[in-house]
Amino acid sequence: MRIDVVTIFPGWFDPLLREGIPRIAREKGLLDAHVHDLRSFAKDKRRSVDDRPYGGGPGMLMMPGPVFDAVDALEREGVAAGLAGPSRRLLMSPQGRRLDQDFVAELAECPWLSLICGRYEGFDERIHSGLGAEEVSIGDYVLSGGEPAAFVIIDAVSRLLPGALGDEMSAATGSFVTGMLSWPQYTRPPVFRGMKVPDVLLSGDHGRIAQWRLEQARRRTAERRPDLLAGPAGEQEEEETERRMP
Fold first, then answer.
1. How many CB atoms lie within 10 A of CB 156?
2. Each residue's pLDDT tens digit, 69-111
3. Which CATH number fits domain 2-160: 3.90.870.40, 3.10.450.50, 1.10.700.10, 3.40.1280.10?
């Protein structure tokens, strides 16, 4: 998979791409990540990428010119590298489709993503309509820019690339993948500061362990995220979780 990022802060991504699963995915040749400085596509000496909104109002908007030029350039580069364009273009925006695990899995199937990071008061509307770009939100809160959201997408997608994780079951059984939150987990020592690992996990009885995990996952989800269990969709996810239990 290739991921291109358009941002006014390219240095933000350098250390993040050198760590964790994105680093492993890159080293294995599963992820080809490129970061582009939007200001290098500005037309004036000040390297301007924003301007005042027509009709008045607070703040500044990202201008269409530099963004269109950046996307044109990165897609020419991608096509020259052998990819069939255009990329799937995503605008980081609080007004967009909410990112969830199903959406992440959908994006992980794409061979080429372009993530466009906004700043200021957002994008000129023609960036959305003219590029055919999808707006994506990672939650109902305000960030100073789209860079954190873009890296959330990179990290979440990287985990689903086949071969990126040492244990492929980690991607298949994590929270939200199964439709419920994960069960409580423990490692050594069996007793720490008076807190004991549940006896069932030390029993060696894999059937009992699987049942305990399912019960704990249901309980935790009901307490913390009851919305995940609500209605027929939640019941269907619960049945699917039982089939996936180790």
1. 19
2. 999 999 999 999 999 989 999 999 999 999 999 999 999 999 9
3. 3.40.1280.10
